Amino acid sequence: MPTDHLTNGDQIRVHVVRGTREHAFNLPASLLPLGGEPAAPWLLLPPEVRTVFELLRQSGPALGDAGLGRPTLGVKCGCNDAFLVAAHEHDDHLATVSAGERTGTIERTLLRPALTGQALGNSARNEATRAADHALRIVWTHDREGRPLTALPPRAARWMQRWKPKLEGRRDATHRLPWWTLFRTDAARAETPRLVWADFGRALRTVVLNSGDPTVPLNTCYVLRTANLDDAYAIDALLSSQIAGAWLDAIAEPARGGWRRYLGWTVCSLPVPHNWLRARVMLAPLGRRRAAGDYPSPEEHLAVVASAYGVTVQQLEPLLTWQSV
Question: Tens digit of pLDDT for each residue in 31-58?
């Protein structure tokens, strides 16, 4: 029912099925859309849960408005068979690569670790790195600034030539750029730390890439470039918390089997604490511990994030319980 045909006094009976239970409750029409915007997602939350949702929303600016960075989608190939390979780097200059049943040899300087959303472990930096280091490579046909090379080295040119017609026919291809061009290469720039998350999953999965890390997140990832490593680790600790998970699950686009889409706008809607400098001091050590494989207990993680927001775990209980229903 369109909300522009309703008044603030109108009550709507909502029925929500979670698991094997149906929950029924009344909501004022004005509380259905996020932020009261008619085009915004509807928040089908019981009143006591919606109160906690709004408590957090008022605890600070949205991540996308907090001056901590804006997300971009990962690098787009348009032809995975040409660019994504398994590699055995057998000397200082050359690597044997394979894609499907085809094998070849490519100059090592054109290979970088690649990271897909599927390869992201449950927010484990070392697991994600191992997945990138020992599985997938991307044939990086660009320079350090992300510009396409004016010419490919001979072995790489021989490898790519097979797919030239398909590469020239990609939707993003133009005659102004070489046919071996990759797209959205800003996500691969490594001069600053990057926070990466998978765009799809049962829960939000994140990883921090330090400055200088050559890993290339692909287009099943979102990439948030941060000014410093402490910001990246603090945001990582925030996003991987039960609190953020419960808040985001209320607005994330649902998919089959309990999976959700964690789009850029979705994650950037998450509030971050008003006093970010104080929150960063509290959260960054958790992010560093997680990166080292020393995961805080769920209770510790929950308590630290709640304190960073300036609320108590008890105040958040209705929202946390609703997520687990």
Answer: 788 777 777 778 889 999 999 999 999 9
